[in-house]
Write a structure and sequence with these properties.
68% helix, 50 residues, mitochondrion inner membrane, mitochondrion, mainly alpha, membrane, COX7a
Length: 50
């Protein structure tokens, strides 16, 4: 975990957060079940859909 810090500048981290926030909004529009599943998958890093 600590080895990742030098490779990830703050700007990239902010971009990452914006990216995930946009995904969060998109999953919110899908529906109650899909919303919960999407957030669960995101928080656990599984079942990613392209």
């Amino acid at each position: 975990m600590t080895t990742e810090a030098p490779f990830r500048p703050r700007e990239k981290l902010v971009e990452h957060q914006k990216y995930f926030q946009s995904i969060h909004k998109h999953t919110y529009l899908k529906g109650p079940l899909d919303k919960g599943r999407g957030i669960y998958n995101m928080s656990h890093g599984i079942g990613k859909k392209e």
